[in-house]
Amino acid sequence: MELRLYDTLTREKRPFVPLDPRNVRMYVCGPTVYDFAHIGNARPVIVFDVLFRLLRHAYGEAHVKYVRNITDVDDKINDRAARDFPGLPLNEAIRKVTEETGKQFHADVDALGCLRPSVEPRATEHIAEMREIIEKLIAGGFAYAAEDHVLFSPQAMNAANAGLPRYGALSNRSLDEMVAGARVDVAPYKKGNTDFVLWKPSKPGEPSWPSPAGINAEGRPGWHIECSAMAWKHLGEHFDIHGGGIDLVFPHHENEVAQTCCAFHQERMANYWMHNGFLQVESEKMSKSLGNFITIHELLEDWPGEVLRLNMLKTHYRSPIDWTLKSVEESARTLDDWYRVAADVVPGEPAASVVEPLLDDLNTPLAIAALHGLRGEAAALAGSLRLLGFLSESAAQWESRKQRASGVDAAEVERLLAERTAARARKDFKESDRIRDLLAGMGVAIKDSKDGTTWEVAR
Ligand code: AMP
Ligand code: ZN
Questions:
Q1: What percent of the chain clears pLDDT 70, i.e. is strictly above it?
Q2: Domain boundaries defined on the chain
Q3: pLDDT of residue 262
Q4: What is the pLDDT of residue 157?
Q5: How does DSSP classify residue 251?
Q6: Is the pLDDT of residue 212 over 90?
Q7: Could you check whether the bond before residue 251 is cis, i.e. omega within 30 degrees of 0?
Q8: Residue 413 · residue 444 · CB < 8 Å
Q9: SS3 helix, strand, coil % of the chain, rounded to 5?
Q10: How far is 456 from 126, CA to CA, in rounded Å?
Q11: CATH architecture entry for 4-279
Q12: Pocket perturbation via mutation, ligand 1, pick of 28, 32, 43, 47 by most ligand atoms within 8 A of CB
């Protein structure tokens, strides 16, 4: 069983060799908790859940550690807290916002069939580690304090060049070009125009902590240092996989690598960098102003989470995905079928035809094509679907949820079916056809067989 993964840093697909097969370690950038998560946010969560499951399958459940952080220090959180709870002290308001949105995020991603990561660290609980990394960076000459800020200098990093990666390597950018192209109105305390913030002063009322670097004023961390600190604390200085959406490659991940590698004097932070492509809706960029912004929460009112999960996995994780209603409807019909065939059978081993494409850089579209070919082998279909995080319900639960969602009254359907059976028994075919049409009008499809009549809600 050989797993191959595409690495954004080296821009190639390589065999995955863990640093320690008894402790395979993955970090994925998690949500900033200030609002309902949208369906684009669901993409990295689902994609890396599939990878987590595949790694557990390959190396054993006890040997994979998955860390996904929760960013709970952020301007957007502060703004939301001030707006929603104007009567409360800001810190309390912030706690309310992050607790509520954090809970909502869990409810959403649980419904999408995602396992909880092994650890979900919160940024606010890792301030000491952030300060420690910042002190190391200052001691190494990669960072400096100025006007109550601490800044990281990419130019100092590339000048040092001693067993460190090149700043810009991950995002395939040249630092010289970044310097030449940088804005002219750079903050006056920055020595270089590409220097980025590790620590900054807090405004009055904002969350604040004792500062590093002998700065008297209290302050708060920049965003990038949060992930370096949480990854370090839970996975060590060097680990296997780091993931997130493609938008995070620059500057977030480029800066994470810079901080971690310079603090610990090493060439690598993660051995494989994985990034999911972006999601758009009905061929348009999703945005609040276009009115096509859809939250996971809203979608879950109309569809079971597994339908959304399948719809996400029909596209390879590195390709852009166009989220359409038509495709979701099709995914729902596919799952109806699979539930009927496989939900109630004892699952067998996942089929090789499904596992092999997954091992090839998570080729889920090919794995799903193989699932369609397994309808005649219910046990293998069931085992394969479970590996991918499907079939959390019984066939009956699935069908009754569909009935509730469609507003069909099962007792009323049963009563009409009994009337129809009676009509057929007395050979009143006009009446039995009338009842069948009536049911069809209610969205109910019936099937007669020698064992009697069954029915289901048609999609
Ligand atoms: P954010 O809360 O914006 O920091 O995003 C959390 C995660 O969702 C990050 O990994 C982003 O890359 C990812 N993400 C945000 N928007 C999209 C989108 N439209 N398509 C795919 N991934 C996204
Ligand atoms: Zn991050």
A1: 100
A2: 4-279, 302-397, 407-457
A3: 98
A4: 97
A5: I
A6: yes
A7: yes
A8: yes
A9: 50, 15, 35
A10: 52
A11: 3-Layer(aba) Sandwich (3.40)
A12: 43
CA of 388 to the centre of ligand 1 (A): 22
Ligand 1 atom at minimum distance from 243 CA: 10
Provide φ and ψ at 254, rounded to 5°: -55, -40
Place of tokens 């979701």: 328
> Which ligand has its closest atom nearest to the C-alpha of 251?
2
Residues with CB under 6 A from ligand 1: 29, 31-32, 40-41, 43-44, 244-245, 247-248, 276, 278-279, 286
Residues 45, 40: Cα–Cα separation, whole Å = 9
Reported as a single tens digit per residue, the pLDDT across 295-314 is 999 999 999 999 999 999 99
**Contact (Cβ atoms closer than 8 angstroms) between residue 63 and residue 378:** no
Ligand 2 midpoint to CA 299 (Å): 26
Residue range 186-208, pLDDT digits in tens: 889 999 999 999 999 999 888 99
Give residue 227 CA to ligand 2 midpoint distance, Å: 5
Give the pLDDT confidence score for residue 370 in this predicted structure: 98
Return the pLDDT at 288. 78
Centroid of ligand 2 to alpha carbon of 224 (angstroms): 6
Nearest atom (ligand 1) to Cα of 37 = 2
313: enclosing H helix or E strand:
helix 305-313
**Cβ neighbourhood burial of 324 (10 Å; 0-12, 13-18, 19+):** middle
Q: Considering only CA atoms, which of 153, 171, 163 is closest in space to residue 253?
A: 171
Which has more confidence, 417 or 451? Answer: 417
33 Cα to the center of ligand 1, angstroms: 12
Residues at Cβ < 5 Å from ligand 2 ion: 29, 227
What average pLDDT does range 30-59 have in this prediction? 96
